Amino acid sequence: MARMQVGTGEFNVVVEGADGAPAVLMSNSLGTNLHMWDDQMDALKQRFRVIRYDSRGHGQSVADEGPYTIEQLSQDALAILDALNIKQAHYIGLSMGGMVGMWLLTHAPQRIGRAVLANTGAYLGGPDLWNARIRTAKSEGLAALTAATMDRWFTREFQERSPQAVDRVAQMFRATPPAGYAACAAAIRDMDQRDSIRAISNPVLVIVGTHDPATPPTMGGLIADHIKGSRLLALEAAHLSNIEASNSFNRAILSFLSASEHKPAPAQSAAPAKPTRAKQKSKNETKAAAKPAQPPSAAPAAPKPAEKSTAKTGQSAAKKSSKKNARKAAAKKAVPQKSVKKTAGKAAKKSAKKKSGTKKVAKKKIMTATKKAAKKAAKKKTVKKAVKKATKKKSGRKSR
Residue 96: CB partners within 8 Å, gap ≥ 6? Predict the structure, then answer.
């Protein structure tokens, strides 16, 4: 930790990570300090030079009399970058820190690279609500606001599952100077950036908590709608999503901050002249015969002037070859109907002959067998008659 003189006051600033790495500036929410980002440090400092600081009126930074403004809090952030000789930094801000981020993106976009605006709003109306909190903080201290604040900042399930994490944040909240809390609350009360953020052109990731009653998802949705090209991510968490859903939060910010900037599209060469009807016909025949070597969307490169005649000859030969190939392919694929009919007719006749021959042979066999049986029967009958006749003769002789 280091206390540095910034403008008219001292600020508590911590810098971690390699000196040559891209810089990331982190700004805390109302009622916390730079330690609200502890769960993000292991992930970030491996790739970035991370600058955390206690916002004005919080932690160990200056807590002069207010009220403050969002512009004043934003000028503090720029002064810290100047003191560290950092010309540009990525930015991560949550709640009040997100409001500071929106002002920086609108009024000093060249100082910010990519920006994460988490659980925040461009306008948090209801002056009566903020005035009541300001009065309570000044008269009773932040202990009187702690229980209700923790219920807004964390879901009931997380409070039961991770009581130590909630208690750590509660201690931060109670330790916040009442005058600093009240002065920053007034800055939030008087802020309205709904129209000005439409001018933001930096890459922006907007994070919302699906169970956040302090800055509901609709507020984040409005920011994403007003900032052209921004991304919107919803996490299963309440207000302090960086703590309640730290793993998902860390993956999202690392992916977003590490993404390469959008590069301008390369200049395209002039489109070739439209083909004549004859050329178009040849082109269509070639497409039907074979797949083109280049995808249809790719424009053919124009030949160099020195190679003009060679290119034409090559193109002519290629067209002739493609026509020939097309005819061969068509000849192979298309079998004449007459030939098919003739072949089918021959096959049918052959099959019919086979069947006919088989029937004739069967009929002949049956007739032969019948004749043989008839002859045999006739023979038997003749034999019987002869036997009968012989028997009659023999018996006649005996009777005599």
Answer: 27, 28, 29, 30, 55, 73, 120, 184, 187, 188
Domain membership of residue 379 as a residue range: 360-400
Indicate the SS3 state at residue 90: strand
pLDDT bracket for residue 8 (50, 70, 90): confident
* pLDDT band at residue 15 under the 50/70/90 scheme: very high
CA angle (113, 73, 21) in 5-degree steps: 30
154 within domain boundaries: yes
- Span 321-339, pLDDT tens digits: 555 555 555 444 444 444 4
| Calpha distance 108→86 (Å, rounded) | 14
Q: Per-residue pLDDT for 116 more than 60?
A: yes
Amino acid at 30: L
Number of domains in the chain: 2
- Asked, for residue 191, whether it belongs to a domain, the answer is yes
**CATH number for 71:** 3.40.50.1820
Asked if the structure places residue 343 within a domain, the reply is no
Give me the residues paired with residue 6 across strands: 9
